[in-house]
Specification:
175 residues; mainly beta; 3 domains; two-stranded antiparallel sheet; two-stranded antiparallel ribbon; 0% helix
């Protein structure tokens, strides 16, 4: 069933409640909910299902009008690795993917990804890929870094060099 948002309104004049269920992760028009009347209580319990808004599949090969994101399609021809990394996506926006196979006989029906969608969220930046020290003179060292392999979805805009520590032995042994 996926994730749902459930709200309750009431009680009404008959001390009844109205429950609203919004499906957040299921795509398309879903079959109506079924009510188990044996589980209802009261003197004359009943339930009724009313569909307010039919579900729709998200558009594919289109633009996200709210954010102006260009979406589209990609054809994989290297069949030894049937995987694709999709970059330059906006954080916090759900993305849906569907895939179909093509051969000399034509294109098959599309299958939706599982899970049905994913939301790229902000990620912490990785450590720099290389840090090196070079002696400048008797009282200075030069520290150089190479940018991290992954920036967490945001441009690196500063580096922090915490104060250095001096290596001092905690104890010494005389043999």
């Amino acid at each position: 069933m996926g994730r749902v948002d459930v709200t309750r309104a009431g009680p009404d004049e008959n001390l009844g409640y109205t429950w609203s269920v919004t499906f957040l992760t299921e795509l398309g028009d879903l079959p109506p909910l079924l009510i188990d009347t044996a589980a209802l209580t009261g003197t004359a319990p009943y339930g009724r299902v009313v569909e307010h808004d039919a579900g729709v599949f998200p558009p594919f090969d289109s633009l996200d009008p709210a954010n102006g994101l260009p979406l589209g399609s990609t054809t994989l021809t290297e069949l030894d690795d049937l995987a694709l990394t999709v970059g330059t996506l906006e954080q916090g926006i759900p993305y849906y993917f569907r895939v179909s196979a093509i051969n000399a006989n034509g294109q098959g029906p599309a299958a939706l990804s599982s899970p049905a969608f994913a939301v790229p969220l902000p990620q912490a930046v990785m450590a720099p890929s290389e840090v090196s020290l070079t002696v400048v003179d008797g009282g200075a060292l030069a520290v150089a870094i190479t940018a991290p392999l992954r920036d967490g979805g945001e441009e690196i805009d500063r580096c922090v060099f915490p104060s250095c520590a001096q290596l001092v032995p905690c104890c010494s042994f005389i043999l």
